[in-house]
C-alpha cells in the first residue's frame, strides 16, 4: 500500500524513470548487494539461511541480466528496484530483507562510485595503450625532422619523436587525473542509509573491503549527497579529450595537401558522397570535435549541484547519463587515437623540406652573437634587421656575403664560417642541448623516461 | 568501387556512424527528397518517369520507416545513405539519380533545419499550454495573498495571480526566442551541393516553397557550414529551461513543510524506498535539474564550432544528439510543468499567514511619510529605526502607541490613524496601483493582456 | 539610522560592493533619473520646483562624472547610491525625493536594460563595418580562385569573393541576433518598485517614451527578476564570437607558410622575443581565442539564474561584469577583424596553384557522366576507381588517354574532349551555376544581395 | 630594429597587450629571473659580475614594483618586457643578457606555474580556516536537533554538528584537489626556450630547486604549450565554489522566516534601499551565485585549448584573467563563508520544533517491524498505509491506539510500547548507530576524525 491515491502521470514516469539508462549499473548493484547480504548475516541482522537464499537469488538474477533474458517490467523505475523485484520473485519474500539497513540513496551513490572507479580504470588502460603507440612511433621516427611551430609559424626544427612525446606527457598527466578521480570515488557511501545512518549495527569496513574501497565515507549526510567523484572523473575526461582534440586538430592539419606531413590509414578515413577523389580524416575530426561534448557534460553536472541544499535531491539523478556518455566517448576516442597514431604514415620528405626553411635558423644566429658577447636583446635586433633585408631582397640568409653581413653589424662579419654553419638545419636541431630539448641525446633520455613512466603506471593500477 | 584499399576499422565505424541517432531525421529526409525529385524533373534534369519512379519508391520507403519494418543494413552509415540504398533496392537503378545535384552536405543541413523548425514549433505549442495553465490558475487565485520575497526574505505581499503571471511573461518571451530560432532555420541550404553550388540549373525557390522555407541560403559555402540555427534553438531551450528551473525550485520550496504554500498532485510526486511517510516533489526537482543539461548541450555545440575552418567538417555531426536531447527534454519538461501547475493545490491559509507578517508594511509607512512631505531617504531612516526598536522590544509595529511613535519622529505621530491602517495587508496590496503592480485592478488588466498575448501567438504560429 | 548594530565586515564589503564595476552605468542612471523626476512632477508626486532642483543637480553630477572629478566616497556601495548621495550634497535634501516611487531593484534593472540596448547597437555598428570590409574585399577579389575545403581537404574551387561573403552572411545573422536582444531589452522595468509596484499613480509610459523603450514590462515581479535580455545579448555575442573564431582560425591557417594564401598587415602582427624572423598573427589568434571567453560569460549567467526563486536576489549582481566584459571584448574583436580583413594581402598565385589541383575536378567528371544518363551513384563509383588508378600510377587525371578511360568505363571514353575540358579549374568554377553557387554570375548576384542587406540594417537601426 | 615596417594598430595593442592584467605576476617574474641569472653564472654562460649586476638591478626593480613607483611605459606589452626594459635602464646593457637561454614562452609558463602554486596554497589555507570554523561550530552545537531533508522534505532528524560536518568533508576533499593542482604545476617549464630547448648547457635542476619545483618538465614542446595545471586549479576552484554555493543556498534558506533556523551576523547582512525592515543575506546569496562564474572560467580555458595545435599560440594568453579572477573570488568566498559560519546564530527552538515532526519517525516504525522479522518491503507498505490513514484522519501517528494499529497489521499491535517510544525524536536520532551516522557517539568519533584531518593538512602543506 502506498500513501498516494492517484497513479503517477505517464509523463511524470517518462521524466522520472531512470531504468532506460541506469540499467548498465547492474553488475555493480549485484556486487554491492552480495557484499551487503554477507555483512548483514555477519552482524546477525539476517540469518545465514536468509543470506544464502539472497546470494543464490542474486546469482540467478545476475545470470538473467548477463544473458539478456532479465524480464524488465512496466513498473520498474530503476535498475535497483528491478533487481529487488526480480530477486523477490525468484527467491521469495526473503528478497525483501535485502533492503534492510540500506536506502536507495546510499545504494545509488555506491553503484555510481563503483562505476566511476571502473571507468577510471578503463580510461587509464586506454591511455596506456595510446601512450605505448606514441612511444613506439617516436622510437621509429627518432631523427625525422619537422618544423616546430609557434603561432602556426615555423619557429624551430624538432624531431618527430620529440613532437610525439609531447602528447605522451599530456596523457601521462591524464592518467594521474583518472587515478585521482578513482581515489575520490574510493570512500564507500553504503551504510549511510537515507541520510542519517541506519538503526543497525552494521559493519561498513567489511563491505568496503569486499568492494575494494580503501575507506568508508565518514559522514552519512555527505555520503548520500556527494557526487564530487563524478565531477573529478568528468574533469579528467574533459582535460583528456581536450588533449585529444589538439592531437586530432594536428592530424587534420598534417593530412592536408598543404602540410602533407602524414597520411592517415584508410581504415580510419572516409570518402565523400559526391566527390570521388576525397579521402577525409573523419576520425581525426571527431577526435577534435568531442572535447566540447565532454566539457558540456562536466558543466551540466556542476550546474545540477549548484545551490542544491543537502542531502539527497532527485536532481542527482542527472549524474548518470553524462558520466556514461563521457566514459563511452572517451574510451572510443582513445582507441581511435591509438589506431590513427599506430597507422599514420609520415612523409619524411615533406617534413624535412618544411624544416629546412632557412629563416628558422635566425635565432641561432642571434645565439651565436650572444656567445660572442653581445647582449641578447641587441643580437635579436641585429638579426631582425637582417631578416627584413633578406625578405626585401628576396635572398636567403645564407646568400648574404660576409661583406654584406658586415654592413649590418661588424659582429656578424666576425662570425665568419660559423654564420653559414648555423644556418644548416642539423646544427639548429643538435644545438638544443638543454634537458628536455630536441637534440638527439636529449630525446633519447626522454624516451627512456617515457618508457619508465609507462611501465610505472601499469604496475600501480 | 572506392578509392580505399582497407576496410574501415570497427572502432572507426563506431565513432563515425550516425545512424544510431540520425534515423529520427527520416520524415524530413523523405520530404526533402520528394521536393528535390520534383524540382529535378521540373528543370528537366531527370525525366518525369524517373521522378515518378522516385516518388513511388519514396512512398514505399516511408511506409516501411513508419511501420518500423525498414530493413536497416550493417553498412548503413547514416539515415540518408540507408534511405537511398533502400530506394535503389525498391525502385531500381533510378534510385541513384536522386543524389543528382545534391550532396550529403546540403542534404544533412536541410534535414537539420527542417527538424529544428519542427521542434521549435512543438516548443511553442508546449509553451502555449503551460501559459494557458498558468493563466487559468491565476484567474482562479486572483486575490489570494502571499508574500513577495526578495533575497528570500518576505518583502511585500502580492496576489498569487500576480506571481503566477510572472512566469507567464517569461514563457511568452521564450516563445519569441523559438520563433526567432525558426526564422533562422528558415533559409534553405539544399542546392548548395558539397560547398560550391551544383553544375545544374536547379530551382531552389521551388524546393523552398514546397518545404515551407521563406528564403534560400544565399551563399553555398555558408549554407553547408552553418549550424547557427541549432545554436539559436539551443539558446532558446536553455533560457526556457532556466525559467522552468526557477519554477521547479519554487515548487520544491513551496511544497516544504516550512513554507507549506502548495501541495503537488500525487500524480507528479514520488514516495521513498525507505521512508514510508515521504511525498517527494521529484518532478519539480527534475524541472530544476534539467536546465544545466540543456545549457551543456548549447556550450558543447559552441565548442564544436569554435575555430572550425570552413566549409563542412565532420565535427558538425556533433550537432544532432544535443539538439535531439534538448528538444525531447524541453518538451517533456513543459508537459510536466503544465501538469504540476494545473494540479497544484495552494494553501490560502498558509500563504495569507505569511503575507500578514506586519514588518512587510514598513515600506508603506515610509511611503506615507513621503506623501506627507518627507524626503524618501529620511523616511526610510525613520522607519528603519522604528523596526529596530520594535524587534528589540519584541512588539509589533501596530502595538506601538502614538506617543511612542512621536518619540521616534514627530512626523510619525502626525500620521494618526493612517499609520495603523497602513499596517493591514489589504492596504499594502491595494496601495500598489502603478501599472504592472499588484493592486487587483492592475492584475485584472494584466490578465487581459496575458489572454491577448496567449491568443496572438496561436494565430501567428 | 539603520536596523543594524554591527558595521559590515570589510570582506563583506569587498564581496558586496559593486561600485568597482557598475560605475560605468552612470550615463544610464542619470538618464533614467531625469526621466523619473520629470514623470514624478508630471504626476504631481513631487513639485515642479523639486523637479527642477533635481534636474539641475543631476546636470552637476553628470558634469563631474563626465569630467572624472566625481568624488566617490568610501561608503558608496554602488553607482546608484553614489549618484544619489552626491545629488543630495549638491542639491540639498530634495535629492532624497528622487527615490520616491522607485527601488534599487527596478532602477538597476532599468540601467542594465539601457546598457544592453546601447551595446547591442554598438555591436550592430561594428558588425556593419566588418561586413562592409568583407564586401569591399570580395568585390576586389571577385574572380580570384582558391580551393574550397571540406574536412580541410581540397574539395572544389571557389572564388575568394564567394568565400569572404560566407562570413558576411554569418555576421548579417548576428546583427539579427543583436536586434532581437535589443527588442528583448525594450520593456521598461522602471516603476516595478521593489517587486510589487509602487504606491503612487506613476506614468510608466511617459518614462518609457523618454528613454526610448517600446513597451513597459507588464508584471512588476518579473520586471525586477528578469535578466533574460542579458542572456540574449550574451548569446548573440557568443555566437558572433564563434564566427569570428572561425575567421581568426582561417587567417592563422592561411598565414602559415604551408598555405601562404595571405599575409596579414604588419599593423596587426607581432614579432617574437627570441626568434627575430617571426611574424606572428597574434591578432588572428586572439580572435580565435576569445569565443570561449564569451561563452563562459553566457554560461555563468545561466548558472546564476538557475533555480533562483523570485523575485530579486543579490545573485543578480553577477549579471554585470560578464556583460561589460563581453561587450568590450566583442567590439574590440570586431574592430580587429575589420582591420585584418581590410589590410590582408592575398596571394593570387598561391591560391590559384592550390585550386589547380586536378583531383578537385573529379566531381565534375561524375556530373558529366550523369548528364550523359548514368545514375549518380554509379558515376561516383566509376570516378572513384579512376582516382585510385591515377594515384597508384602517379599520373594526373588529364594524362589518362581516351583508351585508358575506356578501360574504366565505356561511358568515360564517350565523353571525348569534354572530359579534358572539365578538368580545367575555370570550367569547374563556372559550372556551379545554381543560385548561391560560385559561378561568377551567381557571385555577382550575391554581392548585390549583400550590398542591399548591409544598407537595409543601417536604415533600420 | 624590427622586421616590421608599420607600427602596430592601437586596437591591436588593446587586444594584445596583457600588462593590464599580467602585472600581478611580477613577484614570480623577479623570482624566476634571479634563479635564472644565478644558473647562467653557475654554468658560465654569463660572468659572475654580470650575474651580480643583474641581481642588483632586479633588487632595484623589485623595490619599485613593491612600492608602486615602477615607471610603466607606453610600449610595455607585458610585465616581462616591462621588467626587462626597466632592468636595462637601471643596470645598463647587461640587462639584455638576462634573456639568454630563455624565451618568453617558457618564462610566461613558469610565472603562471609559480602563481598557480601560490594560489593553490592560499586556497588550502582559506579552506583550513573555514573547516576549523565548521568544526568549532559543530562542537558547540553537538546535540542540537534539526531535520535532515531529502527532496527538501523533512526526512530524518540529525544533529546540527553532523550537518555542519558534511560541509567539512566536502572542503577536505577540495583541499586534496588543490594539492593535486599544485603537484601538476610542479614541473618547471623554464629551460624549454621557445619550444625546442636552448643552445646552452643550462642546469634546469638548479633553477627548479631554487624555485621549489619538485621536477623539471621533461619535454620542451609540451612545457611551453601546457596549461593543464591551470585547468586543474580552475576545476578545483569550481568544485569548491559549487560546495560553497550549496552552503550559501542553505544559509539563505535557513535565514528565511519560514525556516528560521539561523540568523546571519549583521556584519554579513545588508539592508534594503526601499524596505526599512529588511535584513538580507547578501553574502550568502553571493556565495550561492559565484560558482557559475568560476565554472565559466574553467569552461573558457578548456575552450581556448580545444583543437589548438602545438606549441605556443597567442591564444594561451587567455589563461591568466580567468585564473586571477577565480583565485580572487574563491579566496574572498572562503573568508566570507568563514565569517558567516563563525557568526551565525542558530535557533535551537525552531530547529527542534521542525525536527519533532512525528512523521519523521515513520521509518523507524518500519525498521522496528523488520527487527520483529517482517521483510523490509512489507514493513514499508504497512507503514505507508498507516501514514495515509493518519493524514486522512488528521491525527498524529502517536495518537493511534493499539487497537487501531492492529487493524492495519497485527504486527504493529505486537510492537506494544516500543511503537510509541520509536516516535520520540531522541530515539530516532540515537537509533542511527552505524559508522558515520547521527547518533551522538558516532558524531563524536567523526569530530575526532575531522580534527585529525584538519591538522594533517596543516603539517603537510
Structure description:
Four copies of one chain form a homotetramer. With 461 residues, chain A is mainly alpha-helical. Helix content of chain A is 64%, strand content 5%. Chain A has helices at residues 10-16, 19-22, 26-42, 48-67, 79-91, 104-140, 160-184, 204-211, 220-225, 228-255, 282-305, 319-343, 348-355, 362-371, 376-393, 402-408, 410-415, 417-422, 425-431, 440-460, and strands at 145-150, 153-159, 187-188, 215-216, 262-263, 345-346. The longest helix of chain A is centred in the N-terminal third of the chain and has 37 residues, at 104-140. Chains A and C meet through strand 2, helix 10, helix 11, helix 14 and helix 15 of A and strand 2, helix 10, helix 11, helix 14 and helix 15 of C.
In short:
Chain A is mainly α and 461 residues long. Chain A has helices spanning 10-16, 19-22, 26-42, 48-67, 79-91, 104-140, 160-184, 204-211, 220-225, 228-255, 282-305, 319-343, 348-355, 362-371, 376-393, 402-408, 410-415, 417-422, 425-431, 440-460; strands spanning 145-150, 153-159, 187-188, 215-216, 262-263, 345-346.
Q: What is the beta-strand fraction of chain A?
A: under 5%
Biggest interface pair, counts: A-D, 123 and 123 residues
Mean pLDDT of chain A: 93
Q: In oligomeric terms, what are we looking at?
A: homotetramer
Radius of gyration of chain A equals 30 Å
